[in-house]
Restriction endonuclease (Anaerocolumna aminovalerica), 47 residues
Amino acid sequence: MFKQQGYSVEVTQATRDGGCDIIATRNINGLPFMILIECKRYDKKIT
């Protein structure tokens, strides 16, 4: 999804530390813009 919007995407190492899982970066108007993404996985269905 982020790659389709022109971001460079890096998946970080799995450490279970509660930190970010994906780093998406992109230059917007010559300025660096970074999004930190944390992914969650649940065993039970979320309603």
Q: What stands out?
A: The longest strand covers residues 22-28. Strands lie at 8-11, 22-28, 31-37. The chain has a mean pLDDT of 87. The chain has no helices and three strands.
